[in-house]
Amino acid sequence: MSDDARAPDPSLLLAVESSCDETGIALIQDGRRILSNVVASQTALHAATGGIVPEVAARAHLRWIVPVLDQALSDAGATLDDVDAVAVTYGPGLAGSLLVGINFAKTLAWVHDKPLVGVNHLEGHLYAAWLRDADGTGPVEPVFPLVALIVSGGHTFLVEMRDHLTYRLLGQTVDDAAGEAFDKVGRLLGLPYPGGPAVSRSAEAATRHDAEFPRAWLGETYDFSFSGLKTAARRTIDEARRDAGLPVGAGAGAEPEARLPDAMTAELAWGFQDSVVDVLVTKTIRAAEATGARSIVLGGGVAANTALRARLANEAEALGLPLIVPRPALCTDNGAMIGAAGARRFAAGERASLGLDARPFLPLALPAVAGRR
Ligand code: KG4
Ligand code: ZN
To answer: Each residue of 170-227: pLDDT tens digit?
Structure first.
C-alpha cells in the first residue's frame, strides 16, 4: 500500500498552533503532506527580556496570526473554500497564547462552516515524525510498537505507542524540561537567547572534552531530572568565573566582555550537554529494548540538537532500529505537526464544538502504573 493510500482524511486541513511563542499555520494534504507551513517566531521579541513574558507572547500572536494565515494560504495556492477542516492546539501551553489560536480557529470554522478539531500540542510533536514534503518525500515511516522521546522547552517525556493515538507514558521530567535547562545554562554562560542552540553551537567548538557534570539516573525509572544538573552547572560556572577574576552572581556575564574565555565556555557547554544527552539517550534505548520497540521517534525543540541526534542515531543503529527525527524546523513548534495529529484525530471521528476551551495543563497520557503493560 502506498503512503497516500494509508493517509487519513481530510484531504485539506488547516492547522493552527499558538501555544507558546511561535504563531504557526500550515496546510496539510491527506493528513501528512505539507503544502505550506508558516511560522512567525517571537524569539527576537523575547530576547530583550531573556525569556517569555506571557502577555507579550499573546499580543504578538494577535498581531501575526492573520498575516501568517494569508501567507500559508498563498504558499499552498489555496483558499479557505478549499479547506475541509480546521485543527487547533488547545493545550498544554500558555493560556493567553492558546486562546488567540483557539478563537481564531473557531471563527474560521464557524464563518466558513468547516468542522473543527482540537489537538494536544504534545501529540503534535509526536506526529511530526509522520510528516512528508508536498512531493511525498520524508524520513522512513515510524513502525509500531515504538518509543518516542519528546524534549522541548516545556516538556520532556518518554512514551510508548503500540498504535496510532494511544500512548503509555513511560517517564517524564520531575522538575525542569531539558530545553529549559539548556536555556538556563546558556544564560549562566552569558550566551545569547535562546540558550539551547547557543549552548549547542558552543559545545561543538569544544576542543577539550573532560568537563564532568552529574547525571540524575533516578534508579531504574524512565523519569528525568535536570534541576540538580542546573545547580551543579551554576556552581562550576561561578567557580570558573571566580578563578578568572570575573564577577559572580545574577546577571554577571551578560556583557560579552564579562564572559569566560570562549574555550572555557565551550568546554563547560560540552560537559553540560554531554550529561543531558547521556541520560536522554540511555533511558530511551533502555525503554526501546524493554518494550520490544521496532522504531524510535525523537521530537521537540531539543531534537534540533546535533549531539543528541547523532548519539541516539548511533545507539539505535546498534540495536538495528530506525530512528525517525523530523528536520529541525518540524521539531520546534509549528502548524504542520498540529495538522498531522489533527488529521489522525479527524479521521478517528473527533470533532470539537465551538465551546472548545484552552487546557494549559492538558496531559498526553497518564503515567503507566508500575508493572502494568
Ligand atoms: O518545541 P519547542 O520549539 O517549544 C516548546 O514546546 O517548548 O522547543 C524549544 C526549546 C528551547 O528550550 C530551545 O532552547 C531548545 O528547544 N532548543 C535546543 C536546540 N534548539 C532548540 N536545545 C538544544 N540544542 C539545540 N540545538
Ligand atoms: Zn512544543
So the answer is: 999 999 999 999 999 999 999 998 999 999 999 999 999 999 999 999 999 999 999 9
Measured CA to CA, the distance from residue 25 to residue 17 in angstroms comes to 6
Enclosing H/E stretch for 117 = strand 116-120
* Contact (Cβ atoms closer than 8 angstroms) between residue 177 and residue 152: yes
pLDDT of residue 2: 42
User: What per-residue confidence (pLDDT) applies to 371?
Assistant: 41
List phi, psi (to 5°) of 48.
-60, -35
The phi and psi torsions of 81 (rounded to 5 degrees) equal: -65, -30
* pLDDT attached to residue 12: 97
Residue 3 confidence (pLDDT) = 45
Selection from 186, 193, 328, 194 nearest residue 266 by Cα: 186
Closest residue by Cα to atom 16, ligand 1, is 301
| Angstrom distance (rounded) from CA 180 to CA 184 | 6
What is the rounded distance in angstroms from the CA atom of residue 50 to the CA atom of residue 43?
9
CB atoms within 10 A of CB 212: 10
Place of cell 515510524: 142
The answer to whether residues 184 and 250 touch, using CB atoms and an 8 Å cutoff, is no
**Within 6 Å (CB) of ligand 1, which residues are found?**
20, 152-154, 179, 182-183, 194-197, 200, 300-302, 304-305, 332-333
* Ligand at shortest distance from the CA of 187: 1
Res 8: pLDDT: 60
In 3D, which of 37, 102, 2 has the Cα closest to residue 326?
37
CA distance 94 to 363: 14
Question: 140 in helix, strand or coil?
Answer: coil
CA 108 to CA 167: how far, in whole Å?
A: 31
| H-helix or E-strand spanning residue 338 | helix 335-347
What's residue 373's pLDDT?
A: 39
Q: What is the pLDDT of residue 219?
A: 95
Which set of grid coordinates corresponds to residue 137? 518525500
Tell me how many degrees the CA angle 318-321-323 measures, rounded to the nearest 5.
105
Closest atom of ligand 1 to CA, residue 179: 12
Residues with pLDDT less than 50, the chain: 1-6, 370-373
Q: What is the pLDDT of residue 87?
A: 98
Which contiguous run of DSSP H or E holds residue 32? none
For residues 339 and 132, the answer to whether their CB atoms sit within 8 Å is no
